[in-house]
Amino acid sequence: MLLPTWALATMYLLMLLYMFVGVALASDKFMASIEVICSATRIAKRKCPVTGQKIEVRVPVWNWVVANVSLMAVGSSAPEILLAVVESVLRLGKPAGELGPSTIVGSAAYNLMMICAVCTVALPTGVVKHVKHLRVFITTAVISMWAYIWMLVVYLWWTPSEITVAEALLTLLQFALLLVIGWAVDVKVWTRFMRGTVANADSDAIVAVEAPALAAASHAMESGMQHVRRSSSLTRDGNTLQPHQPIFNRISSINSTASSQKAGSIKEGAAQQPAGSDQQQDPQQQQELWSAWKQQFVDAIEYDSKAVGDGDDDEPGGVTGLLLHFLSIFWKLVSALAPPEWWGGGWPCFCGCLLLIIGEVVIIDEVATLLGCVVGLSPLVIGMSLVAMGTSLPDTFCSRTAAIKDDHADAAVGNITGSNAANVFLGLGLPWLISSAYYASKGERFCSDSGALAFSVLVFSCVAVVWLTVLVLRRLYAGGELGAKSAVAKWGLAALAFGLWGVYLVLTGLVSDGRVDDSWIAVRAGACVSSTS
Questions:
Q1: Lowest mean pLDDT among 1-5, 211-215, 438-442, 515-519
Q2: What share of the chain is helix, strand, coil (3-state, %, to 5)?
Q3: 24, 393 in Cβ contact below 8 A?
Q4: CA–CA distance from 134 to each of 117, 138, 360, 408 (Å)?
Q5: pLDDT of residue 331
Q6: Distance (Å, rounded) from C-alpha 206 to C-alpha 217?
Q7: Cα–Cα distance measured from residue 359 to residue 383, given in angstroms and rounded to the nearest whole number
Q8: How many helices (H) and strands (E) does the chain have?
């Protein structure tokens, strides 16, 4: 005898929520490995403007803008991107899925509006914070809006109801173009020169470039901070901004104090190692590696109540902290399977966490589809609401804490637009390329029913323009994008953000359910003939 519908729905919902915890933990460690990768430095020769002599200085391997827009943005959006890729692979030879693309659009809507609302409410009344590096924020905002217009071009106007290899390649090329534009804006290539000064010769001969910094403003690091937030930013010198994360910090603290101190020392040494150096580990280093790896499993099981007591007030302790610990033990052990992030320049951990996230999103894809079948909702509605919100919750908590602790709004909302653009260009470019190339190799066409998805993109574009306009007006008349000078203004701004997000969800849901006619925008797959349509 089958379980009642409500029982099945509850079971699938709880399972989906539990999977989100696993993805959050794996994503946190994934981001930690990316931060180690991006912190690598190399030896370069620079001309001293004082003496005119060539001196050796240590410079970051990664340009901070390229690192933020590529690895950092992709790392913070890994669940959404990998979900779309996994769904495309699993559905080869079948009709194109909607869960992956709808999650990417839904996540963009949630991040842009709801994260800003949460950050605004979290700030004390009377506190207003603005984006310090406005040029890069405007650039990524314009590019992110174009990214979703590009989705409409592909789905509706270029080759309606069909996605070609050329469209997929152009989508990926635009991601590369995004990196080039970000780098050009940072180094101001149009000026053809940059002014530089050399620091004191006794201070490791570090070169300080006097160019406008576009990175998120760094804040004073707290002592004992061990957790690495999922949404991080690099400064121009390669340092990582790591605001303390309130709730998920207790869940995801899988490194002990000793292993964290060891990781910090080795990460610092790895950053000082020239790129491309290949040094074999001595037996002592190998022993330290296995000891740190073993310690990850020990810390995944042990509950350190003293660590909770020494943390921030927002960090759950007592019964709540203990409950969260036991609920997440399984996922802590799974995340501990990945090697320590400081080993091998971060790449072994990067690959290990990538495999973990792929395995978890495969289960999420199946569970979300089953939940939609039970409650009578399409994968598109489930993806743009529940799955999008679940995969974005860690970013919400991180951005809230960053908004409170940072002097400016860059670390809280500055990476949203860049991540949204990366989601489309990479999170859809890769699945489109995989599917279109697969069908092209068989002499067939990759058909995709735009359905309510095109309408969803159109609605999101409209509400995004409205919200970005509100942020611009607030910067002009209120002094900043986050916070408000009165409680009425603060809660009114939050209500507006929630209302715009609700309009997006309701309109898309009505179209998906067939209650609103979308024939004026949707292009059905009937115009595209293939063996799967």
A1: 211-215
A2: 65, 5, 30
A3: yes
A4: 19, 6, 37, 11
A5: 92
A6: 20
A7: 18
A8: 22, 8
Give the C-alpha separation, 16 to 368, whole Å. 7
Q: Phi/psi at 148 (nearest 5 deg)?
A: -80, -30
SS3 2: coil
∠ CA(105), CA(364), CA(503), 5° rounding?
30
Nearest to 12 by CA among 366, 380, 383, 379: 366
Nearest CA among 523, 404, 492 for reference residue 151: 523
Backbone φ, ψ for residue 459 (5° rounding): -65, -45
* DSSP letters spanning 144-206: HHHHHHHHHIIIIIISTTB--HHHHHHHHHHHHHHHHHHHHHHHTGGG----EEE--TTTTT-
Q: Which helix (H) or strand (E) holds 54?
A: strand 54-60
Q: What is the distance between the alpha carbons of residues 64 and 238, in angstroms, rounded to a whole number?
A: 6
In whole angstroms, give the CA distance from residue 333 to residue 254: 8
Stronger pLDDT, 242 or 88, i.e. the higher one:
88
Q: Please give the average per-residue pLDDT across 401-426, as a whole number.
A: 81
pLDDT at 305 (0 to 100): 63
Residue with tokens 């024939």: 519
Dig out the tokens for 382 from the structure. Answer: 């489930």
Alpha carbon distances (Å) from 357 to 38, 104, 435: 20, 16, 21
Q: CA distances (Å), 143 to each of 75, 416, 472, in order?
A: 19, 12, 16
Closest CA to 97 of 109, 105, 89, 108: 89
Q: Please state whether 429 falls in left (phi above 0), alpha (psi between -120 and 50) or beta.
A: alpha
CA distances from 425 to 80, 115, 160, 177, 433 (A): 12, 22, 19, 10, 11
Up-side HSE of residue 94: CA atoms within 13 Å toward CB? 8
Instruction: Encode pLDDT of 314-343 as tens digits.
Output: 455 667 778 888 888 999 999 999 999 888
Q: What is the largest CA-CA distance in the chain?
A: 86
Amino acid, res. 51: T
